[in-house]
Amino acid sequence: MGQRVLVVDDDPTVSDVVRRYLEREDFNVKLAGDGQAALDAYRQERPDLVVLDLMLPGIDGLEVCRRLRTQDPGLPIIMLTALGEESDRVLGLEIGADDYVTKPFSPRELVLRVQSVLRRSPAPPPQTGELVDGDLRVDVSRRIVTRRGEELALTVREFDLLAFLMRNPGRVLRRAELLEQVWGWTFGDQSTVTVHMRRLREKIEDDPADPKRILTVWGVGYRYEYA
């Protein structure tokens, strides 16, 4: 079987449809119907990716995401959210979800999102295999980021975003371009980029409120500047 995906949703109809679509693409799928079952399944199965509904009985999806992210910073997580719950989507991204899909959704779209996240960075690695900016070092082949010798806990998308920015220094990158190049989306909510930029700044900047590396170009996008 292929890569392991844990699908967490208390609606058995949704879970079964998602499972069947993923299995058609050779994914090995496990199901969980509530938050505690999700945490138990993670410990037992160690999935490659989690599809996680926000609205769960018992431990809700946000708390499950928070606990999973604490245990495994690099675990890819895709949130399922109800249409119109923008604040929950943003909070989910801030906690550490890599992507989200709003209900009702196309199962095929979800499969494409899963494949996109597991594909990791779409850009080719540099020949050196390492990106260096002062005390910040990115080992592309091992997907490890260190700052001042300390390893940083970055999510899949945070790593991909940082690597893409550092490969394109000095160039203004529009949010739509970042969505396409890093997320693999040709459409989508651009607030996803904004939230990930904020999280990334908190990890690599001395003062996230006055960034020196990731600069905002108001009304356009972002620009990376090497020290």
Automatic annotation (TrEMBL):
User: Which part of the chain is the OmpR/PhoB-type domain?
Assistant: 128-226
Q: Which InterPro entries match?
A: CheY-like_superfamily (IPR011006), OmpR/PhoB-type_DNA-bd (IPR001867), Sig_transdc_resp-reg_C-effctor (IPR016032), Sig_transdc_resp-reg_receiver (IPR001789), WalR-like (IPR039420), WH-like_DNA-bd_sf (IPR036388)
Chain ranges of the Response regulatory domain: 4-118
**Keyword Transcription assigned:** yes
Report the Gene3D superfamilies cross-referenced here: 3.40.50.2300, 6.10.250.690, Winged helix-like DNA-binding domain superfamily/Winged helix DNA-binding domain
Q: What keywords does the record list, in alphabetical order?
A: DNA-binding, Phosphoprotein, Transcription, Transcription regulation
Pfam name, any one: Trans_reg_C
Question: Which species is the source of this protein?
Answer: Dactylosporangium darangshiense
Q: Which residues fall under the DNA-binding region feature?
A: 128-226
Residues bearing PTM 4-aspartylphosphate: 53
Q: Which SUPFAM superfamilies match?
A: C-terminal effector domain of the bipartite response regulators, CheY-like
Recall the taxonomic lineage recorded for the source organism.
Answer: Bacteria, Bacillati, Actinomycetota, Actinomycetes, Micromonosporales
CDD domains recorded? trans_reg_C
- Specify the protein name: Response regulator transcription factor
- The UniProt entry's coiled-coil ranges are none
Q: Does tRNA-binding show up as a keyword for this record?
A: no
Q: Which domain of life is it from?
A: Bacteria
